[in-house]
Amino acid sequence: MQHPMIVHLPIALAVVMPILALGLLAAWWKGALPRRTWIIAIVLQAMMVGAGVAALRTGEADAERAERVVSESLIEAHEESAEAFVYGGAAVFLLALAAGLIRRERTAQRIAALAVTGTLIVLGLGYRVGKAGGELVYRHGAAAAFTTAAGAVPASSVTDRDD
Prior knowledge:
Layout: H1 3-6, H2 8-30, H3 39-66, H4 72-101, H5 105-139
């Protein structure tokens, strides 16, 4: 059950990236920061995609167990949203990378602007996948598949108190 531990990083990066990428582009455009600082956007976008792939893989590993308590169609809808998020993130990564590699300054900045726009789309995709995952756990009870008994707390985690 590693999936819940992994999913937070790509979602957090999806929230941060629009603000960060826009700030880097604006500073680059105005000459306040050198072009090479765009590498920050490239690296963080790559991290988001990598963490997204890890989240997909751990989700696939947990899906069979979750299907014991949640409809397969709900899990598949969440997985499809996650795939769209990762593919969208990968497309934005390629745009950001292209902006970093293209020699013509204005062309590179225009492509970076497309990447910034893409980060907003990926944020929306991240919201969608996070909402679907949250509903699986909190509305449909998917977490029950990972407890010793539905809703029961393992005896080893209960402590006696002298109050």
